[in-house]
Amino acid sequence: MRLAWVELRDFRNHAHTRIDPVPDGLIVTVGPNGEGKTNLLEGICYLFTLSSPRVSLSGPLVRDGAEVAYSRGEVETLDGRVLVEVEVPTKGASRVKVNRSPVRRRRDLRRQVRAVFFGPDDLDVVRGDPSQRRRFLDEALVALWPLKESVLTGYDRALRQRNRLLKEWDRPGVPAGMEAWDAELIQAGTALIRVRADTIDRLAPPASEEFEALAGYGLACAYAPNLWSEDDLEGAFRARIEERRPDELARRSSLVGPHRDEVDLAVRDLGARAFASHGEAWAAALCLRLGLATAVEREIGEPPILLVDDPFSALDPRRRDQIGERLAGRGGQVLISVADEADVPNAAYATWDVRGGSVTPRVA
User: pLDDT per residue over 180-216, tens digit each?
Assistant: First the structure.
C-alpha cells in the first residue's frame, strides 16, 4: 500500500500543499517546531482514518480565516487505486468521497486503505491511566478489522443506556427494564472482550520483538479484562453483575464490563507505568504502534502507511540510529518528522523541508 499523491488545502497551516511521495522507503520531513511537519502527517492520517490523532473536534483542523479544509489523495493497494477526497468543515461531520462516490461510514473507507500513526501523545498509553490503554486497544481493533467497529459502538450504546437508567432511578429496588439492559450489556460486552483478546494476540508478539531489538529485552503486553471465563463468558458476566448489583445501585453506574478493562505492560518484569524509565516508556509506546503496523500487514497482506511524528526526541543516539534503520527496513512507505537536521537517518530515501506550511522536496 502506498500513497501516490496527497493534497492539503487550508488544513492547519497548510494553505496549499501537494506532494508526490516516493514509491517505497523512508521519507523524512524536517524543519523547526511549529512549521507544519506534524500538521502534514496529521492531514495524511485524516485521509485514511477520517479522524485526527491530536484533537477530537474538526474546528482546529481548518486554517485560520478559512471555513473548510480539504485532504485529497490517491492510494495504491493490491486491489487497485483508491481516490479519497475529504472535506472538513469547522463544524459538523466531514464529507467523504471514495472514487468519486460519497461514503457515510468511516469503516467503508478504512477497510480499503490503512495507516498507523505514532505521535508524542502515545506516551500516555504507557504512562497514563487505563482509559488510555483501552483507547489504544480499540484503535488497534479498528485498524485490524474496520468492520468490527460496530462491536465498539454496540457496547458503548448499551453502556450509556444502562448508566442512564441507573442514574435516573431514585426509588428502592431494581429499576424497571434493568433485566433487558443487563442482557444487552452482556451480549455486546462479551463480543467486545473476545475481539479485544484477539487484538492483543495479534499485536503483542511483534511489539515485543520491536522492543527487544532496541533494548535487548522484551515488552510484555497482556490483556487484563475486567472479567473472563474460558468456558462460559456470558455466564461469568451475568454472575458478576448480580454480585455487584447493590454497589451499582448505590453508585448509579455500571461497574462490570469491558469499559473497566486494562492492558498490562511490563519491562524487566516490572509494570511499565510505574517503573519504566522515560526512554523505556517512550520506546514501548513507539513499539506498540510498530507492532500494530506489523499485525495489520499480516492481516491484509500488505504494509499500511506508517506515519511517525517525532520518534527520536526521547531516545539516546544509539537507539535513534537503531530506530532509523528499522523504520527504513520495514518495507512500504514510512513517513517521519524530525526537528533537527542531525536526526535525519542516513537510510532516508527522500527528505522534505517544511517551512511555514510549505513542503519542498530536496533534490538528490
Answer: 999 999 999 999 999 999 999 999 999 999 999 999 9
Can you give the residue range of the structural domain that contains 278?
123-288
Q: Which of 288, 323, 349 is the last residue of a domain?
A: 288
Residue ending a domain, choose from 238, 259, 288: 288
The verdict on 161 and 106 lying in the same domain is no
Cell of residue 323, nine digits: 530506530
- Residue 228: which region, alpha, beta or left (left: phi > 0; alpha: psi -120 to 50)? beta
107-163 tens-digit pLDDT: 999 999 999 999 999 999 999 999 999 999 999 999 999 999 999 999 999 999 999
- Return the C-alpha cell found at 224: 487484563
Residue 293 inside a domain? The answer is: no
pTM: 0.95
Q: How many CA atoms lie within 13 A of 52 on its CB side?
A: 21
Residues with Cβ < 8 Å from 252, sequence gap 6 or more? 163, 166, 167, 169
Report the alpha-carbon angle 163-168-174, nearest 5.
Answer: 80
Taking only the tens place, the pLDDT of each residue in 171-182 is: 888 998 999 999
Instruction: Please give the DSSP secondary-structure letter assigned to residue 62.
Output: B
Collapsing DSSP states into helix, strand and coil, what is residue 53? coil
